[in-house]
Amino acid sequence: MLYALVAGVFWGTWFSLSRSIASISPATFLEVGHTMIQNLGGPMSLLMPATVLANVAVVVVLFRQGQRRGFLLAAAALLMLVLALIATLTVNVPIDNEIRGWTVATLPADWQSTRDRWQFYHSLRTFASLVGLGCAFASSLWNRPGL
């Protein structure tokens, strides 16, 4: 469930905003960006670590139970989640912290390149989380010893 929430936040943002982000005005970009940073920063800082911990617990349990396929799929889900977390913490959050201080009057001349870098890594983490969610779901289908 936690994994679905994380992937849903990323997918919803990608599907509703990121595909057209290059076409919105600087003022709209800042207004939407500031609102999303404010609304998502706190909850995602709790949700993502909780999801990693839950995924680790599933991997450990499946390994201990000898459920090879389920374990491998859950481990793949964890790997994709960690990839999304790394992109988030090393690229997206630092860019969010920059954007938080921007106004229309103080917008840097190269703001589009920063926006495009954020967008690239957001797409990466979105699709990593979706692949991982699929692996997490699939791991639950092989919940029998020896498979």
Task: Tally the helices.
Answer: 4
Helicity range: over 70%
What is the strand content? under 5%
Q: Compute the separation of the termini in Å.
A: 23 Å
Low-confidence blocks of residues: none
Largest sheet: none
Q: In total, how many domains does the architecture comprise?
A: 1
Q: What's the alpha carbon Rg, rounded to whole Å? A: 18 Å
The whole-number mean of residue pLDDT values reads 93
* Topology, number of strands: 0
Which sequence of SSEs, written as H and E, runs from N to C? HHHH
In one word, what is the shape?
elongated
Class based on secondary structure composition and strand pairing:
mainly alpha
Features:
single chain; 147 residues; mainly alpha
Q: What report would you give on this structure?
A:
There is one protein chain. The chain has 147 residues and is mainly α. The chain has one domain (2-141). It is built from four helices and no strands. Helix 1 packs antiparallel against helix 2, helix 1 packs antiparallel against helix 4 and helix 3 (68-100) runs antiparallel to helix 4 (111-141). It starts with a helix and ends in a 6-residue tail after the last helix. The model has no long low-confidence stretch (mean pLDDT 93).
